[in-house]
Structure formats: structure tokens, C-alpha cells
């Protein structure tokens, strides 16, 4: 995609998305700057997840244009139910995969990458689960792993789809505290049904 002629991390102009005959999004104009905190709200099927996947670059719009900063580093937490946990991977390996966007595809992971994984394991209270296969995790444990993976690369833009799914009260509060103490230059976009207030949050209502 072309880089925007200004300084936003992402800018959407008249973006739409349809799948076959179904129009999911239409006429979306959105600018995301460093430090922004956006919350996407609306009914199920309203296009919230589709828009998040467009921001992540996992989908291309069928209408309009998305301008993206060429150096943008994204951390993405997808919906819990969208990931197949039958792959024979451990918790540590999943976190390491979150560092792919810090290197060229042909480069190997370095000692610093594994040190970063160790930091994440401790920060997100996952150290004892480091070598556990992901298929053996509880729902709350798996969600914490996905959360840690989203933070792995120190992203400029954090995209999170219903990040508090399957979290108990302790882990939900941990998530909210973590989001409220991000570096001031990190932008956050999340899909959430929770009414918790975040600093300087802005709402985008979809499907209404």
C-alpha cells in the first residue's frame, strides 16, 4: 500500500468490505495516530472483527484506500476461537513467533529474542507454562499467551479482538492495568463489550 502524505500510523478513506454478495463495511473513514485508543463497538456481525483484520493487513478492502506508515510495527491478538490449538507448539514457541516482525524472514532468532521471550513469560505470569503444549492450556491461560504474544515485538499499534475473553477477574484486571500503562506513543484498537474506561478512548460504532 501507499504511504500516507501525513503522519498517522494508519488512515482509512471510504473503506468498504464485502464477501460475495454481503456488504460488511461501507464508507469507513478513520485516522489512527500514535497514542490513540480506539474501541470498536456494535452488534455481533457488525464488522468489528473484519475492520480489525483490515487494519492488521490480513484482509484487503474491496472499496477505498488504506494508507499505512511503512515502518509500522503491529501486535495483533485475534479472537480466541479463531486459532487452531492442535499444532504441536509450546507456550515459549508461540511467544517467539510474535517476534517475526522484528527480523527478516530468512534470519534466525537471536539470543536477544529468547531473552525477550523470558521477559514476557515472567511479565505475564507464564514462566511455569513455558514448555507446556498449547493444546493443554486452559482457556484463560491460552488467552494470556495470546496477549503476551501481541506485546512481544513492542508494537507501535496494538490490535486486540475481545482481549478479555476467558479471563478471570484477576487476569482481566491485569489486562486493564497493562493497557492503561502503555508507552504514550503506542496506539491501541480493541473490540470489547466491556464498559471499562481507558485514557482518551474514542469509540467507533459499527453495524448500527
Quick recap:
This protein is α/β, with parallel strands linked by helices. The chain has helices spanning 48-56, 91-97, 111-123, 139-151, 169-180; strands at residues 10-19, 22-32, 37-41, 63-68, 74-77, 157-161, 187-191, 201-205. A 5-stranded parallel sheet has the order 5-6-7-3-8, with helices on both faces. A 3-stranded antiparallel sheet has the order 2-1-4, covered by helices on one side.
What does this structure look like?
This protein has 208 residues and is an alpha/beta fold. Helices cover 26% and strands 25% of the residues. It is built from five helices and eight strands, in the order E-E-E-H-E-E-H-H-H-E-H-E-E. It has helices at residues 48-56, 91-97, 111-123, 139-151, 169-180; strands at 10-19, 22-32, 37-41, 63-68, 74-77, 157-161, 187-191, 201-205. A five-stranded parallel β-sheet has the order 5-6-7-3-8, sandwiched between helices. A three-stranded antiparallel β-sheet has the order 2-1-4, with helices on one face. A hairpin with a 2-residue loop joins strand 1 and strand 2. It starts with 9 loop residues before the first strand and ends with a strand.
Largest sheet: 5 strands, parallel
Counting DSSP E segments of at least 2 residues, the number of strands comes to 8
Measured between the Cα atoms of the first and last residue, the distance is 29 Å
Structural class: alpha/beta
Low-confidence stretches: 1-5
Beta fraction? 15-25%
**Overall morphology:** globular
